[in-house]
Amino acid sequence: MEKEIGRVTHFFSKIGVAAIKLSDNLRVGDMIRIKGAHTDFEQAVESMQIDRTNIQEAKAGDEVGIKVKDKVREKDVVYKIE
């Protein structure tokens, strides 16, 4: 089952990191799916940062940086796979 938990607000292509504005909680180890017009892949959250500080868990309203395995685009939707 998938639940929408946020949207991509920016992609840092040189370092392969997506900035994601969360609408629900997310923690390291969760499986996510990022889907958009040209994007559709799943991956585990291996690390997460807020303001360059590593964190284990983030809540709704936070904007986090997550290393992603493929290119993402602004407005792509992030789902948590449960």
3D structure, described in words:
With 82 residues, this protein is mostly beta strands. The chain has one domain: Translation factors (Elongation Factor Tu (Ef-tu), domain 3, Beta Barrel), CATH 2.40.30.10. Helices cover 0% and strands 57% of the residues. The protein contains no helices and ten strands. It has strands at 2-12, 17-22, 26-27, 31-35, 40-44, 48-50, 53-55, 57-58, 63-67, 77-81. It has an eight-stranded antiparallel beta sheet with strand order 5-4-10-1-2-9-6-7, with no helix packed on it. The radius of gyration is 11 Å and the shape is globular. The model has no long low-confidence stretch (mean pLDDT 98).
CATH superfamily: Translation factors
Rg (CA only) = 11 Å
Q: Which architecture name does CATH use?
A: Beta Barrel
Strand content: over 45%
Low-confidence stretches: none
CATH fold-type name: Elongation Factor Tu (Ef-tu), domain 3
Oligomer: single chain
| Structure annotation, total helices | 0
Shape: globular
The succession of helices and strands, N to C, reads EEEEEEEEEE
**First CA to last CA: what distance?**
5 Å
